[in-house]
Amino acid sequence: MATPAPHPLSPPIVIAHRGASGLRPEHTLASYSLAIEQGADFIEPDLVLTKDNVFVARHENDITGTTNVASHPEFAARRTTKLIDGESHTGWFTEDFTLAELKTLRAIERLPRLRPDNAKYDGQFEIPTLAEVIALAKRHSVGGRVVGIYPETKHPSYFASIGHPMDALLVAQLKAAGWSKPSDPVFIQSFEVANLKRIHTMTGLRLIQLMDSSGGPADHAAPSYAEMTTPEGLKAIARYAYGIGPGLAMIQNGDAAPTTLVADAHAAGLRLHPWTFRAENAFLPKSLQVGTDPATHGHIDTAIRRYLDLGIDGFFTDFPGIGVQARNAAKENR
Ligand code: G3P
Ligand code: CA
Known about the structure:
With 334 residues, the protein is an alpha/beta fold. It is built from twelve helices and 13 strands. Helix 1 (29-37) packs parallel to helix 4 and helix 11 crosses helix 12 (320-332).
């Protein structure tokens, strides 16, 4: 009897971080479309809300650095300063714009010095809505292929504090798209804890607890991310989440010896989807850099391979094309 084909989204999965954001301005339909073309399993929209409560894809509600809002005189008076998760930010914020107003803006490259080719697309692409990202993923989920989405709630406590709670709205929108079960091609991620626990009671979709090498969740639901990675901390996460999304350094910091996080998380029944593989020297360990220019691409494929060999179950990358090749090569060699 023939061996059944593996599920199209079997691990390790490749998650296109903000789309193919190494090659197009992040969080644009052009960036997500290229990621899909390059074979990504999941596309990742970070989500914030507009004044009229529509989810749009931006890494943060401050849109100063990733749109041309500063060159729109009609919005000059909306520049303001806000305290978000304990930090002061001055700029323009999605919650002060209706979707129709945001749609008059265009995306610009966040890292123009490192990614000058991306900056050539400045001013071309709209800010996409979550609905548009869902439609894009579904449009490409044909012929046996499944393109999943991997949304992240950004600043959920802050948004709730200004009258824009995210949890139920997100769950309802995903349910309306036909997604509510663990087997559906969706992961919901957050650096906060309490919102994931609430979402766990609202949907069967798989949840990912994000964490970083330093600090702790903005909702203060745990004292630190370090504490969340103790065996007890991981067991507690496993009660509401499918896995964790640690910063790469939590698994292996540069060229140092790997930590025990992969084994510890697996022992707690959690999968690991670390972030974020980027090709530029600026983001690579010394041993994988090429030359000294921070913008030059180094050996990202080797970096990905190192972590795959450590047993990760998927990964975020700004270069999904390279990620898919590295993942496929690793699978063939197993
Ligand atoms: O969501 C995984 C990774 O994207 C977390 O970092 O800051 O790029 O959203 P960030
Ligand atoms: Ca993210």
